Amino acid sequence: MDTRDVQVFVAAALAGSLSEAARRLNLTPMAASRRLAALEAGLERRLMHRTTRSLSLTPEGESFLPFARAILESEGEGLARLRAEERGAAGLLRVSVPVAFGLKIVAPFIPDLMRDNPELRISLDMTDELPDLVSEGIDLAIRVARLRDSGLIARKLADNPRYLLAAPSYLATRPAPRRLEELTTHDTLSMQGVTHWFFQTDTGERAIRIDSRFRATSIEACHAACLAGAGMTILSDWNVRDDLETGRLVRIDLADGVPELLAIWAIYPTRQMLLPKVRVFIDAVTRALPVTAET
């Protein structure tokens, strides 16, 4: 299968016109038509219905289109890998990050990353749930978690210190807790489905049951509610550095435990060698992390 024939098919499908595909690929309409015909002959399937005025995909063409795009992207990635030293990362990078991490850490470095790698394109999926990397075609996921065992490949990027926090307005209504058992007398702000907070103590891990009056599906909502004085929550160092420095939030240190230490992970779908586009993104994430969060 000639990838130049595949390129004509994909361009025509996206443009909705074979003549427009020919123009975009700097081909004559006749040359584009011949390449499409050659592809169909090789596959022994008709991929497009075409007349002088319209073009549409056949059911076979609809089925083949995602694979055709993957073929072209794989070819592009292979060339990008060979040219990485000269041209930097290239191609489409599909990456998934938690919402708060994406807003606080990732979004600010995107302009520099794209300026330094002009052939790199980024599709950023911000969600607090880990997607199916394989079925959704995601190249890389960044997660802050205690990583569960899975078939995915994970690389630890940094430790992720977290703090128990409250706003001065909340602490003005009641004294800060000093020990773990006192947490049950306070208003807590937690993620949906979370019933316990975990702490490291001198004798090991200890789980404290919390009965939060406020729960949310995003840590950003807990963060905002905490800033407004609704109660106490646990947040990552990178997420609250500015709040602590300005006094918008106060760190609460307990005498008998500290919040469970999590880690920041880069997660890949396969063990194949990392493409340049994945490497440069991971490097950018690592540089963007606050100094105290580095390993």
TL;DR?
By secondary structure, the chain is of the alpha+beta class. The protein folds into three domains: 3-84, Winged helix-like DNA-binding domain superfamily/Winged helix DNA-binding domain (Arc Repressor Mutant, subunit A, Orthogonal Bundle), CATH 1.10.10.10; 88-158 and 263-293, 3-Layer(aba) Sandwich (D-Maltodextrin-Binding Protein, domain 2), CATH 3.40.190.10; 162-260, D-Maltodextrin-Binding Protein, domain 2, CATH 3.40.190.290.
The N- to C-terminal Cα distance equals: 47 Å
Indicate the structural class: alpha+beta
- Count of extended strands: 15
The outline comes out as elongated
Explain what this protein looks like in three dimensions.
- This protein has helices at 3-15, 18-24, 29-43, 59-87, 99-116, 168-171, 219-227, 237-246, 276-288, and strands at residues 48-50, 55-57, 90-97, 119-126, 140-145, 153-160, 162-166, 189-191, 196-201, 204-209, 214-216, 233-236, 250-252, 258-259, 262-268.
- Helix 1 packs across helix 2 (18-24), helix 1 (3-15) packs across helix 4 (59-87) and helix 5 packs across helix 9 (276-288).
- With 295 residues, it is α+β, with helices and mostly antiparallel strands.
- A hairpin with a 2-residue loop joins strand 9 and strand 10.
- It has 9 helices and 15 strands.
- The model has no long low-confidence stretch (mean pLDDT 87).
- The longest helix has 29 residues, at 59-87.
- Helix content is 40%, strand content 25%.
